[in-house]
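Q: Protein A?
A:
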Amino acid sequence: MLLSTRRSKALLWTVFAVLFAGIVLPFTYSTVSAAARRTDPQLALVAGSLGAGPARVLLRVRLPVLLPAMAA
């Protein structure tokens, strides 16, 4: 009985994860991609010209600009 309960809980969480991914992720993607298209591409170029590597440009320039869209 205990094993059956664990399997049913695991199945329930799997179904929940699949539904979440199928419903929420497309809306999140469309919101974040629209915000990414609106951002000025010169910001990343300027940061790179000032010595920031790709990881630092992502974490210090692009991510803060996209955070409001991710929270929406």
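Q: Protein B?
A:
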Amino acid sequence: MKKGLLTWALLLCCTFGAKAQLEGANWFFGDSVLLKFTEDSIIVSQAQLSTEEGSSTISDKEGNLLFYSNSGFVYNSLHEPIHEDPIFAGGYDPENPGQGNGFMDWVLLLPAPINLDTLFYLFTLDTTLSYTLIDRRLRDGTGGILDSAINVLIGDTLISLDTKLTSVRHGNGRDWWIFMRTSWSADPPIMFLRWLLTPSGFEGPDYLELTDWVEEEGWYYGNMFFSQDGERLIVIEKTGFEVYEFDRCSGEIEQIGVIDDLPVTGLWYGALSASGQKLYVVYHNIIEGSLERHSGILQYDLGFLPDSYAVKESESLVFEEDYNNYGIWSIKYEPITDNMYFTLLNTTDTLYSHNMYLHAITEPELTGLLCNVQENYLQLATEPGGMRTLGGLPNMPNYALGALAGSPCDTLNETNSVAEVTSPPFKGYPNPVQDHLHIDNPLPTTCQAVVYNAMGQEVERFDLDPGGQAHATGWWPVGFYSLVLQQPDGTLDKISLIKME
């Protein structure tokens, strides 16, 4: 079938059977490591950024690198920074830019629901969740950030947030659900914060309170992520994990399992296999006053849910190392190669040889040791001192996840008989708009036009003449708008717009 030990080269030739999902084909992480996954090869090259843990990368549909970030800086495909001053973000020290971000999930790149190929959001943690808007058309097409959209806060600064940030496509295949988790010190206690990113802007945050969760005290542990199909949400905490079913149409969650009181002192990060059945969790078993210090990977079978006890009993130790020498840090599933990748760090010397490799689980759907853990699977460098892992792997959703076919929210698919789809006769362009918006009106009658901002406040109203017209928009503040057009029979149509400087 697949997959032998890979040795370092600019082109590493292997054969993988999985279908490519190319928007996530590139990974930036660690000390200037940049990988490109294709259906028959992995290309190792050098980025111009470094980060201890937090990073994110985004590519186009053909797998061409677009942008990568360590939260403080964004670099383009030419490996050039697209801005001069660092973006303020929690976990990022501007006085030590080579360190990058010290929290694995505190940076996330998403394509905008509108102008997918040109506009992108960089999410980071300031005093709450914030975004910076990237426009690929700026700086002669090499990309830049909009001065009016840097560190825009979209959350409640009074609520303490955990280090967990993740996202998944809405069931319409266009919008994005964004989830965060409150920290152990928050008041009220543990709950989810949920946003929906649409062409009109952000909806939320909505607060989803919980009745049961893994009790947590102390520093931030674990991560949070969706299954590849978006139907499950997993939360890893220090002493256990929670499993939720997720509705991509409504954004609602339903808890189906809490697995805690595990026989280790601290869970670290987790990842799911493609089917969503096999969960892999990294642990650090460090007992105070004892020399017995271990780091390992546990496998759980979520196919036993909703029986949490059976899931707990399915636990299998698939890999373990002596933490006094080196520890396992992060783990992430990669769909093109259908492998699970993880990092190993020497606990006393960051230049240790294990940092120069990426390690893998090559059969993640198989039970127990059949999953085939391979140390030193992919060589990143030939000597210590460069292109090495520093702990984290990139925070990236399944960019290629499409619409929930046949569901009521699959409203953008004209072949879906379940959804009520209409084709509005009006068109507005260019979008994003600057000084003038051209509106086409193919109807022989005058229509009423009303403009609303992202807060739902009316900005202006005017008559749209038959045939259409150009409308001045230069005085609109930068932001998201909805243009609502009413036909003589009362039919309403909406065009979502972005106003730029």
